[in-house]
Design a protein that fits this description.
α3 runs antiparallel to α5. It is built from 6 helices and 3 strands, in the order αααβαββαα. It has a single domain, classed as Up-down Bundle (Four Helix Bundle (Hemerythrin (Met), subunit A)). With 173 residues, it is mainly alpha-helical.
């Protein structure tokens, strides 16, 4: 299997799990933050969704400039899911067309003329895109737990998942 097909399979799994988390984000509690240094719930949820957009930049270009970045203004769970779904669909299309060559070479994150980091593209999609998504999804799970919101099944049942809840890893991989 090619690198792109391997990544597509993992991306499909991780975004299906992530969507379940985003589907239970209560935007009436968007200002919740567990600590003054923590991100607010609404911003964290939007960040989890927008990470998906980084795949396109990581595969189709050699850099991403955050100088003019403005987070999308999202006010509801429905808007969040629509945004997430749009980004997931676009990324799956890119991964289906990607060739091994697309993951060669270096990629940089910049802020204007300042280079924040440069890494091999293959490493960028693994750490900056995939691992970053999983990290913030777990963080979102902590916020949900603190708000007493049921945590969806992830790689197996959660303490809150119904016995018949689909376990994506087992049934879809």
């Amino acid at each position: 299997m090619s690198l792109a097909k391997d990544l597509l399979a993992e991306f499909t799994l991780e975004t299906a799990v992530t969507r379940k988390y985003l589907a239970v984000v209560p935007f009436d509690k968007a200002d919740f933050q567990p600590h003054e240094k923590s991100e607010k719930l609404g911003r964290l949820a939007i960040h989890v969704a927008e990470i998906i957009a980084w795949w396109k930049a990581s595969i189709l270009s050699d850099s991403l400039d955050f100088m003019d970045f403005e987070p999308k203004a999202i006010q509801s769970t429905e808007e969040l899911l629509a945004y997430f779904d749009e980004l997931v669909t676009a990324t799956k299309t890119i991964l289906r067309k990607a060739k091994t060559q697309d993951f060669k070479g270096n990629w940089s994150m910049t802020y204007g003329d300042e280079i924040l980091f440069t890494l091999p593209k293959k490493q960028v999609v693994r750490s900056f895109c995939m691992n970053h998504l999983v990290h913030h999804r777990a963080q979102l799970g902590v916020y949900l737990r603190m708000l007493d919101i049921a945590i969806p099944a992830t790689y197996g049942p959660s303490a809150d998942s119904a016995e018949d809840e689909e376990i994506i890893l087992i049934t879809k991989w």
